[in-house]
């Protein structure tokens, strides 16, 4: 990491339009719902207000998936800044991608081999691999922001729940294996990685759209 300090805010995207409740994962074409667009406006307001109060954002990035790009768009427009498309913060690979009613389908014995190792996990991209790629992106974005804007630079990155959550677990020196129901990473929540000479030195968490997220449907594939 750069020797100076920086903060990289990992923002989960907003609610997705998914009436068939498909585990959409990396599938193309899944954009925000009406509520999701409202959440994106809320994120724009949150970081816009911070900028007006002396905490400007210096760099914007997002996963290439439609829901992430749509979430960051209002903030980019408000700040008049470009968005870097960052492949390394993409949603986790999942072998159940494209299925609906996943819980019911897991009763099929043909699916059971995919559940053999929940610690890796056996049904998708290893947790360690997700952490490695997200941290590499965080390092590069923090270094770029500091090089261009100096000590204390801030970056906003729109990503996805699982990559954000396992990166936070790593930063807090907790096991990467977890119960998905325990994730503290609601829609458009902000997980902030505070970067110093030693790398990620602390983590803070905020829910600027807490009231809106309570209205959201619990959809798979987020």
From TrEMBL:
The record's Pfam families line, in alphabetical order, gives: His_Phos_1 (PF00300)
Task: Name the InterPro entries for this protein.
Answer: His_Pase_superF_clade-1, His_PPase_superfam, PGM_Phosphatase
Q: Where is the signal peptide?
A: none
Q: Which CDD domains match?
A: HP_PGM_like (cd07067)
Q: Which organism is it from?
A: Nesterenkonia cremea
**Protein name (Swiss-Prot/TrEMBL):** Fructose 2,6-bisphosphatase
Supply the PANTHER family for this chain: BROAD-SPECIFICITY PHOSPHATASE YOR283W-RELATED, PHOSPHOGLYCERATE MUTASE
Q: What are its GO cellular component terms? A: cytoplasm
Quote one Gene Ontology molecular function term. Answer: phosphatase activity
User: SUPFAM superfamilies in the record, alphabetically?
Assistant: Phosphoglycerate mutase-like (SSF53254)
């Amino acid at each position: 990491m750069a020797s100076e300090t920086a903060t990289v805010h990992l923002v989960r995207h907003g609610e997705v339009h998914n009436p068939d409740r498909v585990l959409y994962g990396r599938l193309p074409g899944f954009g925000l719902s009406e509520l999701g667009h409202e959440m994106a406006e809320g994120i724009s307001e949150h970081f816009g207000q911070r900028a007006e109060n002396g905490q400007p954002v210096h760099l914007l990035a997002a996963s290439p998936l439609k829901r992430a790009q749509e979430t960051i768009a209002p903030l980019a427009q408000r700040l008049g800044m470009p968005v870097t498309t960052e492949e390394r913060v993409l949603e986790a690979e999942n072998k159940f991608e494209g299925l609906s009613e996943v819980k019911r389908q897991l009763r099929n014995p043909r699916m059971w081999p995919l559940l053999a190792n929940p610690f890796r996990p056996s049904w998708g991209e290893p947790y360690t691999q997700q952490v490695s790629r997200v941290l590499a992106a965080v390092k590069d974005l923090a270094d770029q922001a500091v090089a261009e804007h100096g000590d204390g630079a801030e970056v906003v990155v729109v990503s996805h729940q699982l990559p954000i959550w396992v990166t936070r677990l790593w930063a807090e020196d907790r096991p990467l294996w977890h119960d998905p129901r325990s994730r503290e990473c609601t829609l458009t929540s902000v997980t902030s990685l505070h970067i110093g000479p030693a790398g990620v030195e602390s983590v803070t968490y905020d829910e600027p759209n807490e009231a809106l997220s309570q209205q959201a449907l619990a959809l798979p594939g987020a």
